[in-house]
Design goal:
alpha/beta, seven-stranded parallel sheet, two-stranded parallel sheet, 10 helices
């Protein structure tokens, strides 16, 4: 299959491209920089420079690649700027879908997130609606996710991969990443003051397992699918394990009952029913081996 990977040099994209190549797909990867394009070529794929916020450049890239499917792995996370990432989810997805539609593409696999669900008891499955409340800044984040998913769904088949929190090489949770800086109390760290060992429940997925899910999703029916390791846990459990793995101080436990009501984790039974099984089955061991 001819596949275009938008965001081929991100935390998931850099692992995804070689998987697609090994699976026999004809792969084109996009990057905003020549350095990134060179990395894509080194992985055995064709590379094209294109900024997702430049609709003309993106149209040319998709037209030239003539893909049968597009995999959307676009993010803007390097500066921990929620507004920039939200803009990419809205405008970048709009540009990508318009370019794909113009090129006759019918299938898209898009990176979404699993912590945008409405509040409730226990891990959320895909039948739970996205959070519709208006409180900021969460409403802005959820609104951008909703826009991404609705825009992607304009194509005939849109598989919406609602990833858990990504950890592993190139993520915020890797050694030297933003979370390590915050836990170490480094000045200017983006998470400084916002990480507490309370009752907020999160679901995780290793970036390599996220990439494997994107390959598998080329054959899945459309709709949202949670992609998590199946071990949702409160921060009072996972933060000390992460801190030990990163070699930084663990935060003091927060009072019981702390944490937002939407932080409930996600159920990945649907993905598993389709044959996807994470090679990193839990963050409890995964954090310590993030280079694997």
């Amino acid at each position: 299959m001819r596949v275009l990977v938008a965001g081929a040099t991100g935390a998931v994209g850099r692992l995804l491209v070689p998987l697609l190549v090994r699976a026999g797909h004809e792969v084109t990867g996009t990057s905003r920089t020549e350095e990134g394009a060179a990395r894509v070529r080194a992985q055995g794929a064709r590379a094209v420079r294109a900024d997702a916020l430049d609709p003309g450049a993106l149209h040319r890239a998709v037209s030239e690649a003539a893909p049968e499917a597009v995999i959307h792995q676009l993010t803007d996370l390097s500066g921990a700027d929620g507004a920039a990432n939200g803009r990419l989810r809205r405008e970048g997805t709009r540009n990508l879908v318009d370019a794909a539609a113009a090129a006759g593409v019918r299938r898209i696999v898009a990176q979404s997130i699993c912590w945008a669900y409405a509040p409730g008891d226990g891990p959320a499955d895909e039948s739970v609606p996205l959070d519709g409340r208006e409180e900021q800044p969460r409403a802005g984040m959820v609104g951008a996710v909703r826009a991404l998913e609705e825009t992607a769904a304009e194509l005939e088949t849109a598989v919406l991969l609602r990833y858990g929190i990504l950890y592993g090489p190139g993520t915020w949770y890797a050694p030297g990443g933003a979370v390590a800086a915050a836990l170490a109390g480094e000045p200017g760290a983006p998470f400084l003051g916002s990480l507490e060992a309370g009752d907020a429940v999160s679901s995780f997925v290793h970036a390599a397992d996220a990439a494997r899910a994107a390959v598998a999703a080329l054959d899945w029916p459309g709709g949202p699918v949670n992609i998590t390791d199946g071990d949702p846990a409160p921060a009072r459990e996972w933060l000390p394990v992460l801190a030990e793995a990163l070699g930084v101080p663990a935060p003091a436990p927060a009072p019981e009952g702390s944490g937002p009501d939407w932080a409930r984790g996600a159920d990945s039974a649907l993905a598993r029913s389709r044959g996807w099984t994470p090679e990193h089955p839990t963050w409890r061991t995964g954090f310590a081996g993030q280079g694997a």
